[in-house]
Every structure is written in C-alpha cells, then in structure tokens.
Specification:
It is built from seven helices and twelve strands. The longest helix has 16 residues. It is globular and about 75 Å long. Helix 2 crosses helix 5 and helix 3 packs across helix 4. Helix content is about 30%, strand content about 25%. The model has no long low-confidence stretch (mean pLDDT about 95). It has a single domain, classed as Rossmann fold (3-Layer(aba) Sandwich). It binds flavin-adenine dinucleotide (FAD).
Length: about 260
C-alpha cells in the first residue's frame, strides 16, 4: 500500500518586503512579494525523507491561498514533492485559523491521506494552531512540534524536545504531525528538481469542490475580527555611547535609567 503523505504549506508575504494591512484590515497579500513559509520547508523536507525511506510513498503539497500561492507549491514540487493541490476562492479572503482548518481538513479528506505533515507555525500569522485544528476536524491523533519523525509499520514516531525533557511519541496512522525548525536542514531545489516541477500536476479546487459554504470562511465566517491596526513607530537610532574612558559608567547609568538594573 502506498503511503499517502499530505504536506500543508502556506504562502506568506516576504518578511523583508513592505508588509501592511489592506483597507479591510486584512494583511495585504496582493501587491507584495510572497514565498513558501520557511517553517513549512522543514515539513516538506521531513515528508520527502519519510517517502525516501518507505517502500512506496507519494508526497502531495496542499495550500489554501490566493493565485500567487502557486509559487509556494512550485517551490515544494521543486524540492521533490510529487503533486500539488491549490485551494483558491475569492470567498476565502480574510479567513481565520478556524476557517483555514476547515478548508484544509476537507481538502485532505478529498485528496486521501495516511499522514498530514505541517510546519510548527506560519511565519506571518504565527499562531501554531492549525495542525491541531485539522486533526480535531479529521478525528485523528496529532503529534506536534517534533524535532525527529519517522514512519514504521503504520505508526508515526517522533521526538519532541521540551525545556526540561525530550518525549518519544507515537500514533497510529492516519495522523497529523507538525515538525519544528530543529528537524533538520531543508534541501535546496536542484536545477533538475526545478525543471521537473514545471511538469508536475497542480490540481485547483474551490469551495464548491469541497462542499464548503462561503459563510463558513472569509471575513464573514471568521471567529476573530481585527478592530484596528496601527503602524508600529519607526525604530529610533537609540542612544550611542562613545567610550572615552567612562563608557562603562555611562552604560550602567543608562541601564539604571531604564530600570534594567
Ligand atoms: C498578522 C496576522 C495575525 C492573525 N491573527 C489571527 C488571529 O488572531 N486569529 C485567527 O483565527 N486568525 C488570525 N490570522 C489569520 C491566520 O493567519 C490564517 O487564518 C492562517 O491561515 C492560519 O493561521 P496561521 O498562519 O497563524 O497558522 P499556524 O497555526 O501558525 O500554521 C501552522 C501550519 O499550518 C499550515 N497552514 C496554515 N495556514 C495555511 C494555509 N493557508 N494553507 C496551507 N497550510 C496552512 C502550515 O503548515 C503552517 O505551518 C492572522 C493572520 C495574520 C497575518
């Protein structure tokens, strides 16, 4: 039996770019450069390693996002994923984490899966909740924040490193896992991989393909609402201490004035 691995990947605004809110207080994703969320590259990497160690496996990457989100899928395909699914619909604009988990769960079910792998968090919303929400909706176990993961005889196993201890965890498939940025370097796409990705299938689904009503997602279906957004004040240059013999004393006085000491 082929091991069906689905990796959820998010398309996020480039953190080095000019990120701002649109008039409706959602993040403006239209005129900004975006990319595959860096923390999801680790999820793609672990999926590829599990597939390489399995007799027969298939890696599908899945994203919910605007048209440009295809770039995130293309990156994951060029790393080595086999195929991709893009859920795109104008009614998804402003969808919150609960709505995103609904769309992902329905898409994963429709695609067919044994293991869902996600990043520990996205690099824009950074909530770190979607994998758990998806597992709840699918009614399967979740093993999150793994720094090491493997699949053996229908069981996913992994190690989660905490501050005080490391846990060895396992769950029967089907299951949902998330991996951390400590799970191992993500491979760079090779030129061969980039060329091969151009020919790999990308399925496009909208809400009707997933039997989801527009009211359940988007700004109208959101459980949270951004009331207001104010730009953070530009960073000031800060206090510069020129050490002409009294640098240490000046620094101590500054720290004391800021009540740091
Ligand atoms: C600055 C900011 C603040 C926000 N605040 C809130 C809020 O307070 N409450 C709220 O409900 N929503 C909020 N959102 C919206 C939320 O980001 C989106 O709904 C998002 O799709 C899910 O949340 P997340 O990015 O934090 O995901 P996380 O829970 O951090 O994501 C974990 C993993 O889930 C997968 N994943 C997440 N989104 C997608 C996707 N679209 N496609 C495929 N895989 C995905 C990825 O593998 C990712 O690594 C916010 C968005 C932004 C940009």
């Amino acid at each position: 039996m082929s091991l069906r691995i689905v990796v959820t990947v998010k398309y996020v605004p480039d953190a080095t770019g000019d990120r701002h809110f649109a008039d409706d207080l959602t993040v403006d994703r239209d005129d900004v450069d975006g990319l595959l969320s860096e923390l999801d590259e680790y999820a793609v990497e672990q999926a590829l390693q599990i597939a390489e160690n399995a007799d027969d496996a298939e890696v599908t990457v899945l994203t919910v996002g605007p048209e440009d989100a295809k770039d995130a899928l293309r990156k994951a395909l060029s790393m080595g994923a086999d195929k991709a699914i893009h859920v795109e619909d104008d009614d998804l604009h402003g969808t919150d984490a609960i709505g995103t988990s609904l769309v992902l769960a329905k898409a994963v079910e429709k695609a067919g899966y044994d293991l869902v792998i996600s990043g520990m968090a996205s690099t824009d919303g950074t909530m770190g909740v979607v994998p758990a929400l998806v597992a709840e909706r699918l009614g399967v176990p979740q093993v999150t924040l793994l720094s090491e993961v493997s699949v053996e005889d229908g069981t996913v196993k992994g190690r989660r490193d905490g501050d005080a201890a490391s846990e060895q965890l396992e769950a029967q498939l089907p299951a949902v896992v998330s991996v951390t940025d400590q799970s191992g370097e993500a491979r760079y796409p090779s030129f061969k991989g980039i060329m091969a990705a151009k020919k790999k299938p990308v399925q496009s689904w909208d809400l009707s393909d997933l039997d989801i009503d527009a009211e359940e997602v988007g700004l109208d279906g959101a459980f949270t609402k951004v009331e207001a957004a104010t730009e953070r004040p530009a960073r000031t240059a800060g206090t510069i201490v020129k050490d002409e013999g009294e640098g240490g004393k000046q620094l101590a006085e500054f720290l004391a004035s800021q009540k740091f000491i």
